[in-house]
Amino acid sequence: MAEEEAKKVVETEVVETVETAKTETFAKSGKKSKKHIEEVKAEEERQAKKLERAEKDAAVKPKGVKPVTRPKLERRGKKYQEAYKLVEKKDYSLNDAIELALKTSPVKFDASVEMHVRLGVDPRQADQNIRTTIVLPNGNGKTVRVAVFAPLDVCKAAKAAGADIAEDEEFLRQLEKGEVNFDVLISTPAYMPKLGKFARLLGPKGLMPNPKAGTVTMDVEKAVKDSKAGKVEYRVDKQSIVHIGLGKVSFGGAKIAENANAFLDSLKAQKPASLKGTYVKSVFVTTTMGPSISVENIYN
């Protein structure tokens, strides 16, 4: 009897093992492997628990009231809001816009007067990427530090013309240390290759000499005098806008208007021949931290 019962137990275990092997057949690798199936099940359990926790949190912590965003004007300072009330929603003549800009300057310091012109050009086109320089009749009110990198004999003439820094090899040593103590850098064509390795230092700051800007020239003395006299560079940005400083509030309306007219004449002369459509789309005048004033567009 005992032997028969033992045989039955063994047979039962064998049958169960065979049935289990049949039902749980796994591949050696891939999506049907035992490891992958276990990982999928574990991930499903984790996601289910995560969803359950999120539902509990949503039930315990109901969403609050959506915050009210104030209009941009209300988020400005009181002085700006008072100045903004003086500006009407219309196009002013250039002289009226400048006088109003001077009147609405909300700061205590001697603010800069700026002009911003939106053009109809495509800066990605080489012939429409406007970049040039202009000597403002009354300067821009800024003290410009001029550096000259040229042979020693040229450096002496540049020093006499008013250059703040005029060096040869010593200038390169300063750049190697990362010292940039100037606003404008002028060089001769022969010395430009030596500045190549400092392109990453000077380029992003807009200090790399450029023939279009008149900072790569043989007449270094003239370039220094022009820079000191108020020569400024302007160029169109990626949004097809030209920005330029016309001077300080302390200049008064007449001098600012003279600078503005000189700039607009220069800008009109830069109109690309390949441009089809409107050249000047809009013109605005403003001061540092002051409201923007629209100028009537008569410059096409």
Question: Would you give an account of this structure?
Answer:
With 300 residues, the chain is α/β, with parallel strands linked by helices. The protein folds into three domains: 24-61; 90-141 and 232-300, Ribulose 1,5 Bisphosphate Carboxylase/Oxygenase (2-Layer Sandwich); 143-229, Ribosomal protein L1/L10, domain II (Rossmann fold, 3-Layer(aba) Sandwich). The chain is built from nine helices and nine strands. The protein has a four-stranded antiparallel β-sheet. Mean pLDDT is 84; it is low at 17-22.
Overview features:
single chain; 4-stranded antiparallel β-sheet; 38% helix; 3-stranded parallel β-sheet; 300 residues; alpha/beta; Rossmann fold; Ribulose 1,5 Bisphosphate Carboxylase/Oxygenase; 3 domains
Helix/strand layout:
Layout (H helix, E strand, L loop, with lengths): L1 H22 L10 H27 L17 H7 L9 H10 L8 E8 L11 E5 L10 E4 L2 H10 L3 E3 L1 H8 L7 E4 L11 H4 L17 H9 L2 E5 L5 E8 L4 H17 L10 E8 L5 E3 L5
Parallel strand pairs: 3-4, 3-5
Antiparallel strand pairs: 1-7, 1-8, 2-6, 8-9
Helix pairs in contact: 4-9, 5-8
